[in-house]
Amino acid sequence: MAKSSYENPFRSKLVHMPADYGVERINSLKDDPYKIVKPLPLEKMEATLDEVTEVSKNSKGLFRELKDKYKIPVTPVDFVIGHKGGSRESTLYSVSEKVAGVILDKKLDDMSDEERKKSTPVFENLFLSLAKYLKDYYLADKNYLRDIFLLKQYMYGHRKGEKTDRIYLVDVDPLVHRCSKEGLKDPSNLYFYHNLIAALPFSLSRAETLLDKEFEGARKELLGLLDVVCENEAGVEKPDKKNMGRGTNYDRIKDFRDDLKKGYLLYSYIK
Asked: Is residue 177 very low, low, confident or very high in pLDDT (cuts 50, 70, 90)?
C-alpha cells in the first residue's frame, strides 16, 4: 500500500474506512469512530496557510447557508488545517459526523412502496432546493458548492443519538466555483454547465422515475435558469470545425431547455 502524502494533525490515530460511504479516501478517528476525516483536494495544491485558512472559513459559510437557507441537510462538518507529508505546505482536512445508513442512490432502489410514498415529498423538496441553489448563485455571480448534485453524495440514515433516518449530504469537500461572466468562453465554467444539464437533471430524472412522480417545482426552477443562460450565451460560442454536425455546448444547453419545455427531462453532457 502506498504511503499517504498527508501528515496526521490529530492526536488520535486515523483508521481507514471502506469506500461504501458515498465518499472516497476517508478515515475515522480511532478514539472517536463517529467522526469522519478526509484529506481534501484543494483547487490550488501548493497553498499557503493564509489561503487554506480562507478556504476553510468560506467553506463553513457555504455549507451553513446550504443548511439554513436552502434546508438541505448537511452532516455537521468542520475543517482542520495540517501539512502535507515531508513539507510545510498547508492542506485541509474535513471532519464530519458519521451517518449510519445507506447511500441515497441505493436507498431509492430498495425502497418499499410505503417508503416511496412517504419519502416523495422529501425528495421533491431536496431537488427544488438544489435547483434554486444553482439558479440563485448563477444570477448572483457568486461562489457556490459545485459538487453536491449527485444522489451518491447523500446518505439515508442517522447520526449518533438520532433514532429516525433522514437524508444527509455527506460529501462535504469544499469544492467551490463561480460561473464567470465569460460564460462558455471560459473553460472553467464547464463545472456549472455540467451541473445544469447533466449532474442535477440525471439525479432528478432518476428520482422521478423511481418515485413515479414529476417534481414540477424543481423543473420550473431549472427551466427558469435555462432561459436566462440561453439568453446570456446566445451567439457567444463559435462552432468547432472539428466537431461539425455534433453541435456546440450552447446547442446542447438550448436543446435540453427546449426538451424540458415539452416535458422531457433528457439530461445531456458538456464537452
From this structure: confident
Cα–Cα distance for residue pair 4/85, rounded to 1 Å: 8
DSSP string, 192-245: HHHIIIIIHHHHHHHHHHHHT---HHHHHHHHHHHHHHHHHHTTTSPPPGGGTT
Model confidence over 23-56: pLDDT tens digits?
Answer: 556 776 666 778 888 877 655 545 667 777 887 8
Look-up: residue for cell 425528495?
Answer: 123
Q: Phi, psi at residue 16, to the nearest 5°?
A: -65, 140
Q: What is the CA radius of gyration of the chain?
A: 20
CA distance 22 to 30: 20
The sign of the CA dihedral 96, 171, 28, 12 is negative
Grid cell of 168 as nine digits = 444527509
**Nearest to 205, CA basis, from 254, 270, 264:** 264
This prediction's pTM: 0.84
Alpha helices in the chain (DSSP H): 49-68, 104-110, 113-140, 190-194, 200-211, 216-233, 249-261
Q: At what angle do helices 113-140 and 200-211 cross, to 10 degrees?
A: 160
Backbone angles phi, psi at 197, to 5 degrees: -120, 5
